[in-house]
Amino acid sequence: MPRKGRPMANTPAVPGKTSEIGRNPAVETLLLRAGIPYEFVPNFKVEDIVLNEGVQVRLGVHRAPKTTVIEYAAQMKAGVPFPGVVLTERYELVDGNTRKAACEQNGTVFFPAYILSGQSDSTYKLLALEINQQNGKRMEKAEIRSHVEEMSKAGSIIDPETLSRSTGASPREIRKWVRLTGFQTRAADAGIDTAVLDALNESVRLQLDRITSAPVLRQATEVASRAALTVTEAKELVSDIVDSSTKGEVEALETIGDARTSFAERMTAVSLGVGSRPSPMGRHKMHLSYLQKNLSAHDLDTVFDAEEKAAYIVQVEAVRALLDDLLRTAGGTGTVTAAA
Fold first, then answer.
1. CATH architecture, domain 7-139
2. Interhelix angle for 121-135 vs 160-167, to 10°?
3. What is the pTM of this model?
4. N-to-C CA span, the chain
5. Closest CA relative to residue 11, chosen from 37, 39, 36
6. Gyration radius of the chain's alpha carbons
7. Alpha carbons 100 and 121: distance in angstroms, whole number
8. What does 248-306 look like in DSSP terms, one character per residue?
9. Residue 216 pLDDT more than 60?
10. Which of 3, 86, 218, 332 supports an S-S bond with 94, CB 3.0-4.6 Å?
11. How far apart are CA 227 and CA 199, in angstroms?
């Protein structure tokens, strides 16, 4: 077994060829940095390369695009050197789908290859992802997300910052994908039907992910799905559930029962296909009702410091101007004036 991070001895090159043809300094740097043992084989048999989805990161539609294969095949025939493909110790293709397809089109028997050893499939996929981002056609967001989801399902430890540097996806996106994958798994374990989940957008799912109890999650998800809750509504419901959960699971389920009663009419409308989310004006009505019942001048001094209060007053004045214009347009009498 080779020493960690050191190349194994090369096999003899084909007569008349140098063993340097097909070497890829960028790939070798990655392998040495990751401590992955490898052997560079300048004349590996193309027909021995194995395709295994377990170590592939590219989605099928993006592997070996036909026009690129034709281009590569023509360049190979013209004698243009190409970097070697990357294989596992089982000769499974990690990187080089297009080069392999071009070799097959040309009837090429031997091609340079890096043969790696001693790593898990997830490590090989992560390596393939980084090689693609650096040297190949950059991966689509869907491919990166699919890889993150697979890692998450496999229980791999994911460092969003490190993975971001390898993939180009932002740490925030990676954290979101990990959370959504975890939520999907928890929902399945809680016995939540797939059709119920499919009706929820990702933002609503992220809100529901705050619920820790499986029975509570199942009931809350059903209400959110059947009532087609908006993100704001889901956030408010989950906050109420989390608050009541501090008293116990029974109280949390009672909170969901109250929500089910509150959204009963909408659930019926959604089930009949004659309604879904409330209209924008319906939401405005709800917010105005809340302000009328709860807003007081005292809140400005207890919630905000002096700087925040000044900024908030500017925003309120802008809202007052909009409401004044709305009243005039609607034929109302008077304006929204400041309290005496």
1. Alpha-Beta Complex (3.90)
2. 50
3. 0.54
4. 86
5. 39
6. 30
7. 20
8. -HHHHHHHHHHHHHHTHHHHHHHHHTS--SPPHHHHHHHHHHHHHHH--HHHHHHH--H
9. yes
10. 86
11. 10
